[in-house]
Amino acid sequence: MRWTQTFIHTLRQDPSDAEVVSHRLMTRAALISKVAAGIYNYLPLGLRSMSKLQAIIREEMERAGSAELAMPAIQPAELWQESGRWFEYGPELLRMNDRHERDFCFGPTHEEVITDMVRRTVTSYRQLPVNLFQIQTKFRDEIRPRFGLMRGREFVMKDAYTFHADAEDLDKAYRAMEKAYCRIFERCGLGYTQVEADTGNIGGSESHEFMVLADTGEDAILSCPDCHYGANVEKAEAGPVPSAPDWPLDRSDRPKSVHTPEMRTVEEVATFLGISPAHLIKTLIFETDEDFVAVLIRGDLEVNEIKLKNELGCTHLQLASEAKIEEITGGSQGFSGPVGLEGVRIVSDPSVMALEVAATGANAADAHLIGVEPGRDFEPSMVVEIRLATAGDPCPSCGKDLVEKRGIEVGHIFKLGTKYSEKMDCRFQDADGNDQPMIMGCYGLGVGRTVAAAVEQNHDDKGIIWPLPLAPFEVVLVVLNADKPAVVEAADSLYVQLIEAGIDVLFDDRPERPGVKFNDMDLIGFPVRVVLGGRGLEAGEVEVSLRSDGEKRATPIAQMVPAVQALLVQLRSQ
RNA sequence: CGGGGCGUAGCUCAGUCUGGUAGAGCGCACGGUUCGGGACCGUGAGGCCGGUGGUUCAAGUCCACUCGCCCCGACCA
């Protein structure tokens, strides 16, 4: 491809709305351009990178036994009503009507459509398993789209679905997918880690996320420096906590109220009372699907809302509003406590029950209670492990201290079980003639997000440094002095040689000044560069270099193609 | 959804407080000089100052509404 025949218009200045490196560079390098919040054009260069990733995905999915199909972007409401998600999904689901006022949505995922398709066709265990994937544009009306392709509203995703007669067979497919994902990210040259994940509202029994490690990642993960354990903080098991220091104040037969004007935070109250944050019982009022719950956690610890949600078995969970807190507790926010609290369930973390003496809010304005003894002064309706794990907690598999890292979630695989097959009546007859729901798995991989993650992980202050497999072009041929016919003629010939050698090359044939061309070449980040100018031509040489090291290798013109090929081989073997 | 900010040339932004002929840099076009790491000189094109309504002799500037975009928050009291 010639530069003058494609559409590459780089930006000299940073776009005003780009925050993270990948968004900034992908915009400046003319890979993407914004159409609306969270909605982008994939420009020719960006599309090439996306296509290359898609080709890798296709190969690996097929290797893992999955067949490609394509499902519609627009889906009828009926299917979503059947699964119940029409009502559960909320405003993230983009809904629309056709001219007959029938309800549709733009698919954010395709469990409903594929389950419907499979149930119409598959009736016997002899037809199982089924393993299908698609690469498709999806839409999720995110609360706050940001970071370019990292959290867009419209995005390209590979999603696969499997259907099985039994759990062992699902496990087999799950392991194959796991392996396929590892191969995909390895082939892309990305540093990634696989972590245990929560299954979220989508449901299911086992789940892993694939995270590309990057400081700008939106997810916190805990991993073990020694063994292979890694988990999303939402999922990570919290180890035992060190017990609180000795209670520094007097003990009494019953809690004593103290005046704590405007002391709302744990820090403030602890300092004011002269106790440790670990002596406080933090009391949070949550709103669930049907009621309100008071949740107790030791003052120096945090609640894992995902664990709490799972323990409560609810789908909706959020902190109650200020007004509700006052209605329920009689005190304002920051002054809630379990003592004498009535009308709501009280859920406590074991860390609270382990306290001998504690302090907590008095459910009254500007007052806290001291000398509170869990079990004597209040009795929770439920004691469950709901603490958020943090760095320093012991690894569940080997006991070492876990460390926290940040990552970009690029893949997520689930064992769904029968959640959708039961609701949507997707059943089969087993060998004994019994009617059973199929057991399902689903496997997502963000295509745009993976490309963005690659940029996030591979760049310098000049621009992108593409890993070879995802580069829009593997090689760029740059002609300087494009006003001199002899140089142009020589460059044309080099271009033809590269094309004939089957090399993936972009020919920068623009009549631009050298500085402009060099800067664009660095910004876009083609892995291998071939530069020919008047000076070189006279010496019978071209300059071959790598984006990654910048070292210029003067090469006889006749040796250009083999020199480029050698560098490509070198890059491939890295 | 709450808080904050911003919409002025293709891009990045001044000008708005204090109302009075629409600005800069980059980019673009033309001419010239340059030509191996974002050149220089000259000439020029390019704006319903996001939209609607109001105040005023007069609005990019003040007021109201509205649309769009960005940031923070929406979880630890």
UniProtKB/TrEMBL annotation:
Could you list this entry's UniProt keywords, alphabetically sorted. Answer: Aminoacyl-tRNA synthetase, ATP-binding, Cytoplasm, Ligase, Nucleotide-binding, Protein biosynthesis
Fetch the SUPFAM superfamilies from UniProt: Class II aaRS ABD-related, Class II aaRS and biotin synthetases, YbaK/ProRS associated domain
Q: Which InterPro entries match?
A: aa-tRNA-synt_IIb, aa-tRNA-synth_II, aa-tRNA-synth_II/BPL/LPL, Anticodon-bd, Anticodon-bd_dom_sf, Pro-tRNA-ligase_IIa, Pro-tRNA-synth_IIa_bac-type, Pro-tRNA-Synthase_IIa_type1
Basic and acidic residues: which segments have biased composition?
Answer: 248-258
**Catalysed reaction, written as an equation:** tRNA(Pro) + L-proline + ATP = L-prolyl-tRNA(Pro) + AMP + diphosphate
Q: Which PROSITE patterns match?
A: AA_TRNA_LIGASE_II
Q: Which Pfam families match?
A: HGTP_anticodon, tRNA-synt_2b, tRNA_edit
Q: What molecular function does GO assign, one term?
A: ATP binding
Q: Where is this region: Disordered?
A: 238-258
> What Enzyme Commission number(s) appear in the record?
6.1.1.15
Q: Does the keyword ATP-binding apply?
A: yes
Q: Does the keyword Glycoprotein apply?
A: no
Q: Where does the chain cross the membrane?
A: none
Q: Spell out the GO cellular component terms annotated for this protein, sorted alphabetically and separated by semicolons.
A: cytosol
Q: Which residues form the Aminoacyl-transfer RNA synthetases class-II family profile domain?
A: 38-467
Query: Looking at its record, which EC class is this enzyme?
Result: ligase
Tell me the first and last residues of the signal peptide.
none
Cellular localization per UniProt: Cytoplasm
Tell me which Gene3D superfamilies the record gives: Anticodon-binding domain, Bira Bifunctional Protein, Domain 2, YbaK/aminoacyl-tRNA synthetase-associated domain
Domain statement: Consists of three domains: the N-terminal catalytic domain, the editing domain and the C-terminal anticodon-binding domain.
Functional summary from the UniProt entry:
Catalyzes the attachment of proline to tRNA(Pro) in a two-step reaction: proline is first activated by ATP to form Pro-AMP and then transferred to the acceptor end of tRNA(Pro). As ProRS can inadvertently accommodate and process non-cognate amino acids such as alanine and cysteine, to avoid such errors it has two additional distinct editing activities against alanine. One activity is designated as 'pretransfer' editing and involves the tRNA(Pro)-independent hydrolysis of activated Ala-AMP.
- Assembly and interaction partners: Homodimer.
- Family the UniProt entry places it in: Belongs to the class-II aminoacyl-tRNA synthetase family. ProS type 1 subfamily.
What's this protein's name? Proline--tRNA ligase
